[in-house]
Amino acid sequence: MSTAPDASKENAESSDIIDSLGRGLRVIEAFDDAHPRLSSSEVAARSGITRTAARRYLLSLVHFGYADTDGKRFWLMPRILRLGQSYLDSARLPRLVQPFLQRLSADCGETFNFSVLDGHEVVYVARSASNRMESIGFAVSARVPAHLVTPGIAMLSTFTVPALEAWAAVHEFNAFTQNSAASAPQFLQTVAAARHQGYWTSEGLLTLGLRGIAMPVKDRKGECRGAIGSTMPAQPYTHDEMVQRFLPRLTEVANVLRDLV
Length: 261
Fold this sequence. Notes:
The protein is α+β, with helices and mostly antiparallel strands. The protein has helices at about 20-30, 40-45, 50-65, 80-90, 90-110, 150-155, 160-170, 185-195, 240-260; strands at about 40, 65-70, 75, 110-120, 120-125, 145, 200-205, 210-220, 225-235. It contains 9 helices and 9 strands.
């Protein structure tokens, strides 16, 4: 059984840690969909550093081509994508699962994805392509609150109960639809059901009219390494038809990956 990620898992001596690098990364992470352009004061508030330090980091990002400014506000530039792309290019796991996703897509006619859990978000790291004119689901590198997508629930179902309760206690449960969990107790019940099944299905957690199915992928030690699944329109399949059609294939792939990841 997996446990929640431990923020203190590094065993390096404190003298080996470059604090300024951590502060610089927090400056980058201050920008998001709701905050695409920020002043140095706003970055300071969102990253927990002084305004003077925030401005120095921001100007450094501008100098190296990772950000731009109009003199008052700052925003990230496309060059910042190189940081995430470095993971996708170097990580073994996305490359390993990609052929399996393509095979699932060819056999089932839907788009399949592989995602990992990063703290309180699901990050999509590999994706197949279906024959549909309009592809459904999240693009590679998309990040979504874990309680709002089926893979998040599937991966969290592998946590021990204490680890899951600790995770839920500090998670922000925003409800996007009437099907979204709006509180920790409600979410814990959902994850308990997913743990019992060994997979999870959901309907309209984030967007009404869509349903999904996902299964955790574990390694030979039983540790969860991610989740494989699919998002599709609520039609033409009923819930039972979706499970009957896709669950055996997902189970087969997860079993094969167990010896590979």
